[in-house]
Design brief:
Layout: E1 3-8, E2 17-23, E3 26-31, H1 37-47, E4 50-51, E5 54-60, E6 66-71, E7 75-76, H2 80-88, E8 92-93, E9 101-106, E10 111-115
Parallel strand pairs: 5-8
Antiparallel strand pairs: 1-2, 2-3, 4-7, 5-6, 6-10, 9-10
């Protein structure tokens, strides 16, 4: 028996409503995509949903009190809250270079936490 899952594609600005027909975990068909990224997004979201993450962490000795950071790649959706907890526990000291790895291999996923801004020491 086939089931249908409805998704809203976020791969491009169009925002296509997608229908994914599946039997258990086996995907049979994806419809509704206006570009070639839609079907790829639906398959990824259904089988292994991942999220990109950006936030800020405290930094001392710099002009600004918080440093923006991001992940080097998306992580599994179910790990987002744990990742945020770990990232928010970081305490940094200036200077920091843009692109600097602040935390290597977050949650054993092979994803690094990167600085997205250069901050000199005061």
């Amino acid at each position: 028996m086939s089931d249908t899952t409805t998704l809203l594609c976020i791969s491009c600005p169009i925002g296509c409503p997608l229908q994914l027909v599946h039997e258990g975990q086996e995907i049979k068909e994806v419809t509704g995509a206006q570009c070639n990224r839609g079907a790829k997004y639906a398959r990824q979201e259904f089988s292994d949903p991942r999220r990109q993450l950006s936030t800020t962490v405290p930094i001392s000795g710099a002009r600004w009190q918080r440093l923006p950071v991001r992940l080097s790649a998306p992580i599994p959706k179910h790990l987002v809250f744990e990742a945020v907890r770990i990232i928010h526990s970081l305490r940094l000291e200036a200077p920091v270079q843009r692109g600097q790895v602040l935390l290597h291999d977050l949650l054993g996923e092979g994803v690094d936490v990167l600085a997205t801004r250069h901050l000199d020491r005061l």
